[in-house]
Amino acid sequence: MAPLTGIAASNGIAIAKAYKLAIPDLSFEKTKVDHPDQEIERLTSALAISSSELEKIKKHARASLGDEHAEIFSAHLLVLSDPELIDPIKDKIQNEKVNAEFALDETAQMFIQMFESMDNEYMRERAADIKDVTKRVMAHLLGVTFPNPALIDEEVIVIAEDLTPSDTAQLNKQFVQGFTTNIGGRTSHSAIMARSLEIPAVVGTKNVTEQVNKGDVIIVDGIHGEVIINPTEDEIKFYQQKQEEFEQQKNEWAKLKDEPSVTKDGTHVELVANIGTPEDVSGVLNNGGEGVGLYRTEFLYMGKNELPTEDEQFEAYKSVLEQMKDKPVVVRTLDIGGDKELTYLELPKEMNPFLGYRAIRLCLERDDIFRTQLRALLRASTYGNLKIMFPMIATLDEFRQAKAILLEEKDNLVQAGTAVSDDIEIGIMVEIPSTAVIARQFAKEVDFFSIGTNDLIQYTLAADRMNERVSYLYQPYHPAILNLVHNVIEAAHAEGKWAGMCGEMAGDSIAIPILLGLGLDEFSMSATSILPARTQIKHLSKEELASYKDQLLSMNTADEVEAFIREKTNQ
Q: Fewer CB within 10 Å, N side or C side of the chain?
């Protein structure tokens, strides 16, 4: 049987029996009830049991995956207590005298359809959250057992239509060797968690659940995105060899943990990590990170009922800086909006939130929120090597306003007798094409650039990277992207400044040689990508790659660029 192909979501090879993670039968009939109060009591009980379960899952996720992933379950718990969802269910039971199952399903489906129809990835993800949470409540109403991946006690590969965040957070990597799903992508919750757990995963196979029976032997090739069902003895031996080679490769990578990131002709670049919480720092240090290139501070604000206080933020920033000692920590100020919303901030609903009221635009208008964060950062600055960058900067005026507020808060703290570092670099994320085009003007005023390719690519090519129909246009190696990146790096160097990159592209094995040749100074990526990148860089010549620069920038297509780099670097 030919292998199933999907998306390689998490590196590695897994060989084990299949464990089909199936949602139980949640079918029910609509019935009229004589005592609606009793139905509301049943609903309240099911909500309470579900809430208790999610608290346990959240605790498990925090211990195994860290705060950033655990916050997903804070959002789920908020759904369970959200009066906008729960009150209409109770009203339907009371007014229509129907059973709790029917009222729950009707109301949940209304919200799910509403969110799924929105042109906003964040809101579409909220539909998935409501599905996950309400299925759990429905199972308790019906008295059936909801899947509990935490109970898996033998080596298996999990097979599912999709893995919800609560499913993935319960996976025990001691027993779950890998997983594969019908749907999903590299940026889905389950894929991100798989990489954190370091278990192989292939998602988006379309029909793996139909092809696999319980107990079948499965091979998941998370390197090439393939799934082999009931392999032959020869295939098993072949992939066992691949497993051994991958483990050997990981051991080789580990030897470079405390080594600098230097090309074979002696050029040093910085390999740093993207983090979301103080708990992520251990992963940075364990993988030999030379600093933090992007601290996404929005996770301090998410999964809560109110804004974090100045002291709460100060403790978080201080913790990261102290753990990193004198290594650089680049903190991005609040980047809310677009696909990230805060339920307690009544932000306007927008037709296109990715191009709307978000990030620095929100902070400059709500400077009460902005100033609180800046004061917390400035107070923490004496505990390490802090650099601050502003996201979504489109004009020089925005940068000047943001910097002026920062300096004003610094003066206020100093006058009040609070110690503040005098050595804080202030930079911007380059994620808007117009900013990349006039990078020379910005370079005269900023201390550094960090190129956010995730947004820069989709804005430049006018293609939503989360939209499957236009995902083919999300092309990191497109000559237009390379020319913009080159322009930013050249502008920085002309003013004696440094340029980094904190998008997914920075850890991409094809992009790394290109970026080295273009002169990028700092590569910020997921912590688990650092050692593979360091190994690759060790075998590359900066001078040789720089000699290809003009050819690459004048090519016509992304495919031409990729083919050229593969040939020159033997990939």
A: N
